[in-house]
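Researcher: Next entry in the queue.
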Amino acid sequence: MSGPSNRRAFLGRLGAVAAAAALGKHWLPSAAAGPKPSPAILRAVKSRPDVIVYRGNYPGWPWVARAGRRLVCAFRDDGVHGFSPTGKVMCAFSEDEGKTWSPARVVTDEPGVDDRNAAVSHLPDGTLMICYNTYTREHVSRSMVLCSLDGGTTWGQPRPISPLDARTRAAPLALSSGDILIPFYRAPGNGSLAALSADGGKTWQVASVPDTKGFLGDEWSALEVEKGRLVGIIRNSGAADGYFWKTESRDNGRTWAVPVKTNVRDARSTSPAHLDFHGKTPVLTYADRRMVSVSMVTTRDAEFRTWDLEGRLPCYQYCPDGAPIADASYPVSVAVGEHRRLIVDYEIRPEGKWIAGYFVDLPPQWS
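Model: Structure for this entry, 367 residues:
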C-alpha cells in the first residue's frame, strides 16, 4: 500500500550482526525495506519457523505470554481471514520455553459468531486473563474478557469490556497501581481506546486516545515504563506512509496524550507492533514489511519516539527470495532466556496454515 521510500541507514552493530548470524540463512530485502545489510546479515536471517505452535484451518493473530514456568499462546482459528461463524478462541501451552507445545484447547466458541483477536496475560494473582472480541455476520464487534483460575484447565464466562463496536489486539496489562488496562480500538481505523478495571476485570472504564491530524488510530500495545507512566505504540491503519505512532499516559491510563509519529515504519503496509521490556531494554517487535519480514528494534529515547534503526535486528522473512506470503505479520515476542526471545506469528502459506514460532538471539547489550 505504501509507495517507494527513501533508503534508510542499516549498518548493523557488531553485536547485532553476531546475534543475527545465529538465526538462519536468508535475508533478501526489497528496495523499500532500507539499505542493503552487511554480508553477515544477508546470510543470517531465517525463512522457516523453528517450531509450529498449531496447524489449523485459518489460525490468526496470536499472542504469547509467560505464565510462571510455562508459556501460553492464545489465537483464533477457523474458516477465513474475514467473518467465520465457527471462529473460536484457542490456547496452547509450552513447558520448555517454546520448543514444544501442547495440543490446543478451545477457550470460547459462541455459535454463529466469530470469536477472534485473542490476547492473554498472566496476572500477579495467578489468574490467566484473555481479552478478545466477538464478530458477527453484520461486522459488529464486542470486546470481551474471560479468566481461568486453574492455569487454563477451565475458563469462566465471558464478560463485556464495553458496549462499543470495538475490537481487541493487545493483552491485558497489570499495572503497578493494581488496575488492569486493555488497549482496544474502534475498527477500522476509527480510534484507539483504553479500558481500565479496578476490580479484577468485573467492570471497566473507557478512555480515548485523542485524535490529531494524520492519525487514524487502530490496534496498539502498551507498556508501563515507569510507575504510573504508560507508553503505547499504535498502528496507523490505512495510512500510506506506514509509520507507527506513540502515545502515553502519566496517570495510570486514565488520560492519554495526543499521539505523535515515531521513526519506525512498515515499508509495505501496516500491522500492529508489540512493545515489551527485555530485562530493562525496551524492545519493539514489528513487521518492517508486512507479509515479507519481521524485525526488532530498541531505543534509548526516554520519549520512545526515536528508535535505533541503525541497530535494527532482522528476525525472519517468510520466503528466501523476499516474496510476500498470502497472510501474516502479527508478531508478538516473549523472553525465553537472558539473550533470547520467542516470536509467535501466524502464517498462511500454500503448504500450510499455522501459528509459527521463531527463536531470536539478541545482541548482548539488549538486556
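Model: The domain at 51-361 is CATH 2.120.10.10 (Neuraminidase).
Researcher: Noted, moving on.
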